[in-house]
Structure formats: structure tokens, C-alpha cells
Amino acid sequence: EKLEKEAFLLFVGDGEERKTLGDYVKKRSIKNVLFLGFKNQTELPKYYVIGDIFVLPSSFEPWGLVINEAMCYGLSIIATDKVAATTDLVHHGENGFIYPAGDIEALANCLLKLIQDGELRKNMGKRSFEIISRWSYVEDIKGIMAALDYVRKNRA
């Protein structure tokens, strides 16, 4: 399907699918796709700052700290239901989309919505920043204290 707006796709990082993706893009002469390879943690901010949408298509991620980082830069988030951070950080339809891992059509639909609707993308990015701004060590400590208090009160 033809996009109404021009989009660029940056792949940051390496993995077992890198060659397959590169071959796919090359074979189909797809433009505006760059594979940047592995980047040191200190290099990542310059990529967050130029982005509008952050995608984490992992089939398993114990947390996914990059979600926190992308939200700090006000990016709309698209991630799979196998990224643990989505449970707490991604509010489907509010600051991003959560789709079933491996469902390429669902991923494409999420991307299409955000690419073609600049207002939605912008609002989701703002909401990401608002959500992540509420997360801090203070909130972590409050959560731990509340859990301990709950256990203490509900011991049999």
C-alpha cells in the first residue's frame, strides 16, 4: 500500500533477522530504510530525538528498558504483547499500540495509523512523556512499601 506521507525507517541494533530484513529491502528496492547496526548506549539519544515512533517487535523481552527511554523522548510506542514493560507503560490507543507478537499485519496497521495521522502521533508522544514522567525511584519505593504493608495486613 502506498503511504500518503513519506516515512523513514531506522533499524538500530543487530540480531539474527538483520540479514533477512536487509535482503528483503534490497530485493524489493524499498527506499528510506537504513540499517544502523549496533549502537552503544551513549549513542542512542541522537536516534530517539529524530524519531516520531518507536517500535519494539520482540517475541520476548523481560522488561524492555528502551520503551522507558523512548517515552522520555516523547515518542509514540508500538510494541508486542511479549514486552513486559507494555503492561505498565503502554496504554493501548493512548500513548501507543500493543499488538500480538508475530502478527505482521497488526504491526503494519499500527504503523500506518501513526504515519498517516500526525495529530494522533503527536498526542501519543506527548502522552508517553506524561506517563513516564510519573515514574521515579520515589514511586518505586511507595509501591514496595504498599506491597509490604498489604502483606503485613493480610498475613493469615
Annotated CATH homologous superfamily: Glycogen Phosphorylase B
Number of strands: 5
The biggest sheet, with number of strands, parallel, antiparallel or mixed sense and barrel status, is: 3 strands, parallel
- Average per-residue pLDDT, rounded, comes to 94
Q: What is the radius of gyration computed over CA atoms, rounded to a whole number of angstroms?
A: 18 Å
Q: Give the structural class.
A: alpha/beta
CATH fold descriptor: Rossmann fold
> What is the first-to-last residue Cα distance?
60 Å
CATH class: Alpha Beta
Count of runs of 4 or more consecutive helical residues: 7
Low-pLDDT regions: none
Could you characterize the architecture of this molecule?
- With 156 residues, the protein is of the alpha/beta class.
- Helices cover 49% and strands 14% of the residues.
- The protein contains 7 helices and 5 strands, in the order βαβαβαβαβααα.
- The strands form 2 sheets. The protein has a 3-stranded parallel β-sheet, with helices on both faces.
- Helix 4 (85-89) links the parallel strand 4 (76-80) and strand 5.
- The chain starts with 8 loop residues before the first strand and ends with a helix.
- The model has no long low-confidence stretch (mean pLDDT 94).
